[in-house]
Design goal:
This protein is α/β, with parallel strands linked by helices and 306 residues long. It is built from 12 helices and 11 strands.
Length: 306
Amino acid sequence: MTAPLAFYFNWNTIPDELHPRVIREFLDHGIEDLVFINPVMQSILANPSRKDFYLGLAERMGVRFVGMHSPYGQTFDLSLIEADRKPLMIQDHVKALETCAEFGSKTYTMHLGTYPYAAQNVKLEQLREHIVEALEKLLPEAERLGVVIAIENGFSANDSAEELLYYINHFNHPYLGVCYDTGHAHIVTPYPWKKREKYHPHVINNWIEPAFQECPNSIDLLQPHIVTCHIHDNSGYADQHGMPFDGTLPWEDLMPKLFNCPRMLEYQTEVSYTEGKIWCGEALSNRGGYSINHHVQVFRKLGFSW
């Protein structure tokens, strides 16, 4: 394993003056690589001065914000179908890719997007045309800036492992790869103990036709194309973003495969520090949420070192 591990934190949930204190906690554990989360990227698009804040913070504290995630949702996803918004969406992502390059980030994770499919009943074949059109515009910019666009697997027909491979094979482009989300893949992995009625509505609602489908081998299908990853755990039924070993994901089987991805540029933690109710049910953390120390110790247990 030569690719670095970048640590996730919910930077948008704390005031600016507390950022150095949180970074100090990471530094005291020997961690210098941090994830640049999508709310931060979205705040920069809305207010460019925010970029100067994070550039200055990184320089002053001696850390790197890497593994950048694009803004996502109805107005940012690659599957956007509204013609009047499309040019603005492309402009936003070009600005975000330029931000990636300024910070020295090697990857830019993007969602294909489930909204048109799940909420507007647009067929997969139609969505492919919109996604291909967007990537045709963005991939030359990514190549110009030296940033790899990483399309992320989910739990919809529109972002299944097989669907990601459609775009990888269609473009066969060195600046297009996959962000492998361990939690999303675990949700669609069939196990004998799983019961269909236990899936959270957040999962089921992303599927229209065909009905919810499972994929037993997402990692094997995507492994040759993985350039970054989001590492977290869940119950198998909901996207809880829990700490590894707190859910039901078989880490002893997965980690050797993640450590042997030939295109891997960096690993990312994506554990939510939240306690209590979240968007897809109950969080896996104890009272008070996860600590940075616990975060670090668990990822050492997974086999990471820095």
